[in-house]
Design brief:
Layout lengths: L1 E5 L5 H10 L3 E5 L3 H8 L10 H10 L3 E4 L10 E4 L15 H10 L8 E4 L7 H12 L4 E4 L9 H6 L4 E5 L7 H9 L1 H5 L4 E5 H32 L3 H9 L20 H14 L7 H24 L8 E5 L14 H11 L3 E5 L4 H7 L4 E2 L3 H5 L4 E4 L4 H4 L3 H5 L6 E4 L6 H6 L3 E3 L5
The structure holds uridine-5'-diphosphate-xylopyranose.
């Protein structure tokens, strides 16, 4: 099938490459010329494991191309909308500029029978509005909402082997023409047994925001337990293990630490609250305000703990922050708790060095005032305290004895509770975890 993918960021670039891998003929369209040039040369404009190999493979097959011209969408039967919906400046709501612009630019190129498939995370009600807009100029074209649940760092496998497909169509019916067409696009995954839920447009939009809100709530729940554990002298890691053994609860997403960040969870829960307010259902989501507050409090808590660890003052203390990305296996620093803590420490008088295997370029663009060091050994040299804030494998495997020969003072704060406290203490370190004695 001929497919166009509009928006080639973390979501769209991966989606375009995966659709070509499934055997479709794909054109990726983006307004950013630099991104298009990189992707055309089979280079990923961001770090995502497996993406460059996949780009190379499918481009050699001739099934994938990239362009800045939206007119290249003409002739495709299915058009995926994969542009971003960032948080509006100074407001909680989602900025719909890119989605609206993408759909408006696409409309003149639509032909009868074409299906526009929305993948971006949008405020509920958007799909119904866009469907009407499309119908106005091409009554025979359809809109289907198909939210994406991929995780950065696992984007390729999540796209090729998703947990489920959600299809939202105007009448919520399995017999909708667009359903048949999207089934053809995803035929390989559907044949391997991936479940598919067909529903109406607003439910499909809400599935995504509800799922992200649940995940955010789970993380803030365990972080709230970490606060209580800290006050009571209990251990939140063991608590999570034991609570997670109840298979109604599950152990996943119960890792206490510096909290969630990234381009999705923080802005999605805020946009959800804003949208519920517009709908007059704000009371239903007031708990998300608390989820957000618990999450942001983690960052302040780590700054306080670091001050404690350094003997009461941060002035002039050389602090090395291990990790800048919002999570490992990503170079994404959008709303990264690690980077926000590093910046706070610097503001309070510490001399901060940040290291990360992949995210330093993005980090230095975001916070040029921090000092960055590519090599871990060099970053450790002379440090008065280490802060492990993103759990890259390399940092989880640090050797406390070797590290001790590099730093000035043996102090470590484990912001992700991934190190073995007894091992580090045995090597002479003052170890602090979050919610651990
Ligand atoms: C998330 C959703 O998982 C995904 O389904 C959706 O499509 C987009 O948003 P992503 O942003 O890639 O994906 O990251 P995710 O793996 O969910 O992690 C989000 C944040 O939560 C990270 O900062 C991570 O470090 C943090 N986290 C995760 C915790 O603090 N504790 C946990 O137990 C799990």
């Amino acid at each position: 099938m001929r497919i166009s993918v509009i928006g080639c960021g973390y979501l769209g670039a991966v989606h375009a490459a995966c659709m070509a891998k499934l055997g479709h003929e794909v054109v990726g369209i983006d307004v950013d010329e630099r991104k298009v040039n990189e992707l055309s040369a089979a280079r990923a404009p961001f770090y995502e494991p497996g993406l460059e190999d996949l780009l190379r493979e499918v481009q050699e097959s001739g099934r994938l191309s990239f362009t800045t011209e939206v007119s290249a969408a003409a002739g495709s039967t299915v058009h995926f909308i994969c542009v971003g919906t960032p948080q509006k400046k100074g407001e909680n709501g989602a900025d719909m500029t890119y989605v609206d612009a993408a759909v408006s630019a696409l409309i003149p190129h639509l032909l009868p029978g074409d299906v526009v498939v929305g993948k971006s995370t949008v405020p509920v009600g958007t799909a119904t509005r866009l469907a009407a807009l499309i119908r106005e100029s091409e009554p025979e074209a359809h809109l289907l909402w198909n939210p994406e649940f991929l995780r950065e760092g696992h984007a390729v496998s999540d796209t090729l082997h998703p947990d489920r497909f959600v299809y939202g169509v105007a009448d919520g019916s399995e017999d909708h023409k667009a359903v048949e067409l999207l089934d053809d696009v995803y035929a390989a995954s559907l044949a391997s047994g991936t479940p598919r839920v067909v529903t109406d447009l607003p439910t499909s939009e809400l599935v995504k925001t509800a799922a992200n809100s649940f995940l955010a709530t789970k993380i803030s729940f365990i972080n709230a337990m970490a606060e209580v554990c800290e006050a009571a002298g209990a251990d939140v890691s063991l608590l999570a293990d034991a609570v997670g053994m109840d298979d109604r609860i599950g152990r996943k997403f119960l890792n206490a630490g510096i909290g969630f960040g990234g381009g999705c969870l923080p802005k999605d829960i805020r946009a959800f609250m804003a949208r519920a307010g517009e709908l007059g259902a704000d009371q239903a989501l007031t708990f998300l305000r608390e989820v957000d507050a618990i999450n942001m409090r983690r960052r302040t808590r780590v700054v306080e703990l670091t001050r404690d660890l350094c003997g009461g003052s941060l002035m002039g203390q050389k602090i090395t922050v291990l990790g800048a990305a919002f999570k490992p296996e990503s170079d994404d620093v959008r709303d990264s708790p690690a980077l926000s803590i590093a910046a706070q420490l610097q503001l309070q008088g510490a001399v901060v060095t940040v290291t990360d295997p992949k995210a330093l370029e993005n980090a230095s663009r975001r916070f040029p005032e921090l000092h960055y060091e590519t090599l871990t050994d060099l970053a450790l040299r002379g440090a008065d305290a280490l802060l492990l804030l993103t759990e890259w494998n390399e940092y989880c495997r640090l050797d406390p004895y070797e590290s001790a020969t590099l730093v000035s003072a043996l102090r470590i704060l484990d912001g992700r509770n991934v190190l073995d406290p007894s091992k580090w203490r045995a090597a002479g370190w003052t170890y602090r975890g979050l919610g651990r004695p």
